[in-house]
Amino acid sequence: MLDFANCLGSWRPDFLVEDGEEGDEIFRITEINARFSFNGFIHEAYGQEVINRSVNAVGSDWVGATDHKTILNGLFGLFDPSRPLYLLKGTEPGIDIHMFADAVRSRYGIGPRIIRPEDLRMLATDDSKTGRRLYCDAKELIPDVQAPRIKAENGEVWEEIRQVGLELHQKELASLDPEMLHQVALRCFNDMRTILLVHDKRMLGIIREEVPRLMERRVLTPEQGAVLNKGIVETIIPGSQAMHDLIGDSATAPHLRHGYILKPIRSGKGDGIVFGDDIENDEWISRLRDLASPRLVAGVSCVVQRRIVPREYDLLLKASVGAVKYPLVGTYHVTNGILLGLGTDKTASHVELPRLNPNMKFNQVIAALATTAVAIDWLPTVPLHARQITSGAKYECHEDCGYAILGADQDGYCTNSTWTDLFDGCLECANEFNIWQYYGDGVTEAAEPCDLDATPAAANSTTNATASTGASATDTTASPTSSGTAEASDEASGAGLNKPTTLVLGAAMLAAVQFL
């Protein structure tokens, strides 16, 4: 395997912000998400593109906190686009992984194949360093997946896997045959050490425990040690002396538990977190005693973290509601040790939050959040699926209809030739692509002050053809075939990406993730 320093993979640390003694903002990392390498990347990139264009358009002093191209390039830099790409997923429904597959296809012209653990196959061979090659059962052939294929004795067509991304829970990894897991680990572009160790909540506690020794050995400077101690929330790991001390202190000071939370060591998304003040002290002490040993117990093992009382920020979510004070959960993206930028913030009216980037000013986050929040009112108008269409006539139709709605906010739009062209374009294509159901009300409302007829043209039956067929599934190859090298494509950039509808589409999608 590669040296870990050269393949750190995808990390998404979460942070909270609490008030310092002098009213300043103190950022605390509460966990590192590394289980699923795609999570948040595509939503963040599309949404950030929206925000940056919106901020630039109004000519203010605000700036976007992140460059969307940097986010995408960091994610795409995890794998080799010259090789066929496989995405191994299990029970996790996933969001970004599906958008990632579409983005890879648009950018590189290669179609990642999404496979399940039960599709994996191995073949003993003398020409492999490990003595085995990894394959999947290609139940149906995908034209843009150009991988070496063989026909197995049982009649299955197998495609060789040379690189794979994972979206599997730990128990799904553990259920794989050990040798199969070994082969997957050798080809996984998000290193298995990242998935199993960096994601583990105990890692933060271990780092804090090791800081003094690392400074003594001059691995860390005193300044670096201070940054880690300040930037990582206090995390007590099972079996540690700090855990034993907490058990004793909790017995004599019952209210001590109010300042702590229990967090399962391998969970994500806030699953299984227990706040000390939500349970009685007897149960609290019982739970702590289960953590007196470092031995891992499924469903029991947790870390204990100091409870962060998050700072609240003024947010304008809807004009009809006005400003509200909400806490925020922040995150940032890192690939192979390189900071890519801030990620999607989350909030709720009452939420206990886990997420830090000390190099970013928090007002940049607020600017991005406030800009995005206005898109919530557009969610019924601009459906989330529209953003998945990145080019072509249907995409342009979405643009025309969206612009027709947005442009109605401008003075004198009825006599603006650009707006009328967009309006006419929307009426001509909306039925053809079956999107009038999403834009009809908004376009009709925009047309009324202009005394315009907002009746869409009838769909042209000659253009409503089914998708063209590619290679037939019967075109299987009985012997191994060579893998072709896909040429990179810049088509994903699209000629219309500088239009305001694209901004609303992406903002609506990002807003949905943040607030719905």
From TrEMBL:
Region of interest: Disordered: 461-495
The organism's place on the tree of life at top rank: Eukaryota
Residue ranges with Low complexity bias: 461-486
Name listed for the protein in its UniProt record: Uncharacterized protein
Organism, as annotated: Colletotrichum orbiculare (strain 104-T / ATCC 96160 / CBS 514.97 / LARS 414 / MAFF 240422)
Classification lineage: Eukaryota, Fungi, Dikarya, Ascomycota, Pezizomycotina
